[in-house]
Amino acid sequence: MEAEEQLIERAKRDAGAFGELYERYVDRIYNYVYYRVGAHADAEDLTARVFYRALGHIRAYRQRGAPFAAWLYRIAHNLVANWHRDRARRREVSLEDAMEVAEKREGPERVAERNETSRVLLAALRTLPAERQQVVILKFTEELSNAEIGKIMGRSEGAIKSLYHRTLIALRAELIKRGVSA
Amino acid sequence: MSAKTISDVVNLQADQLNAGTPAAIEALIRATPPERAELSALTQIAARLKRALAPILPAAFFRARLRDGLTLAAHHQETHRTMVAARAGKSRGAWQWGWLIGAAAIGSTAGLIAMILRARQSRKPSPPAISRL
Q1: Which member of B10, B42, B58 has the closest CB to residue A47?
Q2: What ipTM score was computed for the predicted complex, to two decimals?
Q3: By the CB < 8 Å criterion, does B7 face chain A?
Q4: The domain containing residue A180 runs over which residues?
């Protein structure tokens, strides 16, 4: 497989090379977006936007120690944040109603349709701040180490370790609030 | 057991969940009575999270359609860039021709003036010779 740096340089002027980069990362980005928004249609829309934005800015991309994936995840993170903000603005129903609607829509829950625990757990996860959701999704779906997650999120390995611990504590509190025993 | 140790254990458990070997951590939790309840609750949540966050693949149709769209957009981008570069090259070429023609015009005008001046000078009558007679 071609070295990533060379492929990126080629992708700045060659459509085929950008296609190769897309093939390498589309599943990972889709996975991340999917668990952040909870619906296939929205995940597809946002994944497409991530790659179109990456294509538009790839000539300005410079390697600065972090992997190319970190750049893509950062684009995805920003687009998901905007998506949540726009959605919150558009909806006039309360946050609780919105959560319920989100839970009823097609989502990650479909994977474990009969698994009530997973459904509640994912719904609880989505109430946490974005960076906490990000650390858990990158850790468990991407199976990245704390050091790798740190590079993506621009934090130290120690900070990610502590963030993960605090995320579990927050999740337990959220589950208790929802009447689920942790 | 300090918060740092709890953090170490839950992080270790996450690595073991990813590696598919969570049994070792359970033995460690059983061996730590003071914080067993806390650790047990957090590690159970982590284990459930791991199960709930199973990797999801995008639909093949979506994947292929997006790739086609991106390839097309990349080609458009390339074509646009080539056109802009060609236009910039053309205008640079026009400037170069302009300078060349200008320089040639100035050069030939200067040559013409020099010729006229020389011709005038050669037509002037020479001063009469002074006779010493």
Answers
A1: B58
A2: 0.77
A3: yes
A4: 104-182
Work out the burial of residue A139: count CB atoms within 10 Å of its CB; fewer than 13 is exposed, 13-18 middle, 19 or more buried: buried
φ and ψ of B53, to 5 deg: -95, 50
**Selection from B1-15, B44-58, B88-102, B104-118 with the highest mean pLDDT:** B44-58
Structural domain count, chain A? 2
Q: Which residue type is seen at B63?
A: R
For residues A123 and A79, membership in a common domain is answered with no
CB < 8 Å to A26, chain B: 58, 63, 66-67
Burial B75-99 (b: 16+ CB within 10 A, else e): eebeeeeeeeeeeeeeeeeeeeeee
Query: What pLDDT digit, counting tens, does each position of A123-159 carry?
Result: 999 999 999 999 999 999 999 999 999 998 889 999 9
Query: How much is the pTM?
Result: 0.73
Residue located via tokens 């995840």: A73
Q: What is the mean pLDDT of chain A?
A: 85
